[in-house]
Amino acid sequence: MNDNATPRWDDQLRANGYRVTPQRHLVFQAVAELHHGTPEEIYGHVHSQVEGVNLSTVYRTLEVLENVGLITHTHIEHGSPTYHEVQSQGHVHLVCRQCKAVNALAAEQVRPFVEALQQDPGFTVDLGHLAIHGMCAGCSETSGVAVAIRKDHTDE
Amino acid sequence: MNDNATPRWDDQLRANGYRVTPQRHLVFQAVAELHHGTPEEIYGHVHSQVEGVNLSTVYRTLEVLENVGLITHTHIEHGSPTYHEVQSQGHVHLVCRQCKAVNALAAEQVRPFVEALQQDPGFTVDLGHLAIHGMCAGCSETSGVAVAIRKDHTDE
DNA sequence: CTGACTGCAAAAGGTTTGCAAAAAG
DNA sequence: CTTTTTGCAAACCTTTTGCAGTCAG
Predict the structure, then answer these.
(1) Which residues in chain B land under pLDDT 50?
(2) Per-residue pLDDT reduced to its tens digit, A125-142
(3) What's the angle, vertex CA A21, arms to CA A80 and CA A38, rounded to 5?
(4) DSSP assignment of B73-103, as one string?
(5) pLDDT given at position A3
(6) Per-residue flag: B26 CB under 7 A of strand D
(7) Do A104 and A91 touch, CB atoms closer than 8 A?
(8) CB-hemisphere CA count at 13 Å for A97?
(9) Mean pLDDT, rounded, of chain A
(10) CA A56 remoteness from chain centre
């Protein structure tokens, strides 16, 4: 489904008229290494290696990297969006509301569903953006109960 | 639809030890009427009917209503979460990245997928939280092809 | 050399919090 | 009457923006 298997990250930038800078390299690396992280986390990661990269630069860079198609973002929590490398085209996020763990789900397992939506409402799903909330296997066992309304521990 | 003006919304509150106040009634009504809205929108809706309800009260009330199980929220856009009544538990949001339209998808169409996840990774999906991003039928036609990388400001 | 990119600092949203007054039960 | 809830305003946090200097091409 993809002609250019893995184009160099910097070519992706140049191809779109953007310049390649050390800051952009650092931010992209951070996103790739963290697997998924908020702007702040990414900023932290970058800072832990080199100093001198500004927070606003991180924000601007994330935007650029996303425009170029190197990364995407999803909304996992309230405040901040979560960015992740786009490499694994079709992977979906499974977010556990209990332990907050975020696991990836192979595109394979989602395909039938995606195709069904393509058919019926004619909706084209953007897998990179898909974050499914719920409870993971581990937590389901631990907490026993399931669909009950919980009044303690709000958040999420 | 509802011959019974107030099904049990206030009982839900009392049952959990919360007090029933006009502000809470207004906020709950607003959420129900708007179908889905951000805190601000809800605040606006409430204000358009009565004045004297503070924004912070709206925030606190949304939290309470969610704790009690009357409403839920999803993350549709960057900034603010979107709240909606919990009545239609099993409906999923289809968010078009082009026209920003938000359509509901019946639980029926999602069930096979949900059950599949229950089986394999043992993940219990929380339907109320599910927001699927992509492109709706209408926009798919209009904009022609899709998967191309867009470098012009595409927000979200 | 030129225009895109960065850093800095200040602005802008959106959400939360402390407190005293008002209201619910 | 007691305890929760509200309004108000200030505090907070996260994200955005204007500018001038710097750097990639």
Answers:
(1) 1-6, 144-156
(2) 887 778 888 888 888 776
(3) 10
(4) EE--SSS--EEEESSSTTEEEEEETTT--EE
(5) 46
(6) no
(7) yes
(8) 24
(9) 81
(10) 20
Which bases of chain D are under 7 A from a protein CB atom?
4-10, 13-18, 23-25
Q: Strand C: which bases are under 7 Å from protein Cβ?
A: 4-10, 13-18, 23-25
Answer whether A58's CB lies under 8 Å from A24's CB.
no
3-state DSSP assignment of residue B153: coil
- Say whether the CB atom of B54 is under 7 angstroms from strand D: yes
Residues 6 or more apart in contact with residue B50 via CB below 8 angstroms: B22, B26
Q: Is the CB of A80 under 7 A from strand D?
A: yes
* Chain B residues within 8 A of A81 when measuring between CB atoms: 78
Question: Which is more confident, A9 or A145?
Answer: A9
A91-102 confidence digits (pLDDT tens): 788 888 777 777
Interchain proximity A67–B97, CB inside 8 Å? no
**Distance in angstroms, CA of A63 to C1' of C12?**
19
Instruction: Please tell me chain A's helix, strand, coil percentages from 3-state DSSP, rounded to the nearest 5.
Output: 40, 15, 40
Write down the mean pLDDT value for chain B. Answer: 81
> What percentage of chain B carries pLDDT values higher than 70?
83
Partner A contacted by B35 (CB < 8 A): no
pLDDT given at position B88: 57
Instruction: Delimit the CATH 3.30.1490.190 region(s) of chain A.
Output: 89-156
CATH architecture of B1-88: Orthogonal Bundle (1.10)
Which CATH class name applies to B89-156?
alpha beta
pLDDT, residue A151, reads: 37
pLDDT tens, position by position, B53-85: 999 999 999 999 999 999 988 887 677 889 988
- CA-wise closest residue to A104 among A39, A152, A35, A38: A35
Is the CB atom of residue A82 positioned under 7 angstroms from any atom of strand D?
no
d(CA B6, CA B61): 18
